[in-house]
Every structure is written in structure tokens, then in C-alpha cells.
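User: Can you predict the 3D structure for this chain?
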Amino acid sequence: MGETRGVHLLAAYVPEQGVVLAQMQVDEKSNEITYAPKLLATLDLRGVLVSGDAMFDQRALSLQIVEADGDYLWTVKDNQETLKEDIEVLFEPHRPLAGTSALPNDFRESKTVEKGHGRREKRTIIVSSLLAGYSTWPHLAQVFKLEHQRTDALGRSKTEVRYGVTSLPARLADPTRLLNLTRRHWGIENGLHYRRDVTLHEDHSQTRTGHAPHMLAILNNTVLGILALQGVTNVAEARREFAYQFDKALHSLAS
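Assistant: Here is the predicted structure, written as C-alpha cells:
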């Protein structure tokens, strides 16, 4: 017997508040890129920064966001090969020829170093506005190169490099802010996906038909949103506590 595919949902999530603003079910014959414009059209994007994985790094979506008075921040990968190459070339080290001076640049940098659990993590972002002058990417203001170096307790290091673009100008987003914004985006995995899939056991659910999977996801979103607004950071602990004290869980809904 064939297996029934799980429901594919696309959500607009606010990491700082831990709240899902809107959610749509993606048709099995379609993909998230098709539904992203529809989802964003339901939201007021004025003054909002929309961030996303490389698959959302699309011209039409970038234009839609800025025309709605918002801003975008995308990771750039091989799906936008020309744009990625432009950024890579920009940040490549340039060795001046004898008798010549180095090429002018406006590179700005910020870094963080964190230690914990036997690991040392160093993040360095280099930002430039030089591509804004000639790139055809809609409303491009800044590009960046982000290096993430992770060193374990044995001294073994691994470095990952990412590139990105944003419509936020330098006056609104210096390197320190851009570094923080990129980290907030990657916090979506732990803040929403892991909590729903693992902590609330959504991945183990056998509910596959009708509107039930979508409704279950909405309920889980609501639970996570309420806990976030109450300042709960350990959802697994709160889940166990409420399982033994259901009256406390009900009281939290009314508070």
C-alpha cells in the first residue's frame, strides 16, 4: 500500500515574538515559491523585514515586498548564479599590480565570538553597498559575506560561508545589525520547526487527511505563541508541567 504524503505548510513567523502570523497549505503539485507571494499578500508589510532561505531569493518576490513598503533579506546560493558570482567576485581578495594602488571599497565588518558546551563559534560579516550602483536586482542596497567558524573541544574547525542581499540601506542596517538579523532568521529552525516537529510530536502524527493536519498545526502554533508571550523558553519542560497540571495550563490561557 502507498503512503499518504504529509501536509506541506508555509508559515510567516516572527522569531522575536515566537508567533506565526499566517500559514498556507502548499499543494503537492506546487512549491513554496508559488505560495510565498500569496501568503505575503495577506500581511501588512509596512516597516517589516522579510527574510528567507535561498529558494525565496526571487526578483518578483523582492519587488513585491518593497512595493508593499517592506524590506527583504535573502541568502543567495546557486539558484541565482549570476548574483552569487557578483557577490563572490566583490569580496575576493584583490592583489594590486606593482606600481598600482588597491581597488577602492566600502567594506564594513562586524564579528561575534561565543563559547559554550565545549565549542567556540566565531561569526564574521563583511558588508558592502558597491553592487547597488549597477546590479539589476530589484531595490538592492547591500550585499554581505558571512563566515561562520565552529571549533570543537578537540580544536577541530569547520568554516561555512554564506552570501546574502538586502534592500536595507547602510543607514538603517550597519554590519552589527545585519549580523543579528541573519542569526534571528536561522533561529526559526529551533524556535518553530524543531518545537513543532519534535517537542510537540507533529512529525509522529498519523493525521494525514482532510483539514485535520492543518488544524493541528494551527493549534501547535497557538500553543507556541502563548508560551512565547509568557516568556517560556523551555517548551518541553512546560509541556511536561502542563500535562501533570492541566488546570495550570487552562489558567495560563486566561492570564
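Residues 212-229 form the longest helix (18 residues). The radius of gyration is 21 Å.
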